[in-house]
Amino acid sequence: MTDWIFPVIDKLGPTGVGVLVLLENLIPPIPSEVVLPLAGFRARTGAMHPVIIWAAATAGSLLGALLLYGLGAWIGYDRLHRLAEQRWFLLTSPADLDRGRRLFDRHGAWIVVVARCVPVLRSLISLPAGVARMPLFRFATLTTAGAGTWNAVFITVGWLLADNWHQVGTYTRPAGIAMTIVIGVAVAFLAGRKLRNHSRGED
Hints:
Shape: elongated
Largest sheet: none
Order of helices and strands: HHHHHHHHHH
Pfam families: VTT_dom
Number of strands: 0
Transmembrane segments: 51-77, 139-162, 174-192
Membrane topology: Multi-pass membrane protein
Protein name: VTT domain-containing protein
Helix content: over 70%
Keywords: Cell membrane, Membrane, Transmembrane, Transmembrane helix
């Protein structure tokens, strides 16, 4: 993946960093844990200014999050609830959806900020925020805070590691894989429970 990330950053500069981070929100396999340290390393060589890189990356994070928030808002809670009532919709049940909504209503701010600093979840969290119709200004502010912190850390690490910037992936990749497994297991559990409840004739 670095074979094409390198040219994008070198050719487009901070704009390329912003575009790549935007795409990472929509296509999680594009890892910001690779993009940001590389950008930090390039800043150390004098090719780009670190503050401009950070601003571009944070703007890309926010734009990508807003696009997914808009998708979640378009789906809406009522529509998703109707889908959850269908037997073929295995992602969640109405009861699980209601519990998730109550949890998000109580702790949504913390969930958004923390999730922005967790691999995989940082891309997915915008959807439930949109479904729950978290106030847009609040969502944008929390997303900027969480994403800005994440971006600053990884750009700084790339600056400090210099030629060894790629070592960041050695430590962050297992976390991304573990989170993907956790999410997969959780979805499988919810789907299995819904199928069992249907087979028993329960709601």
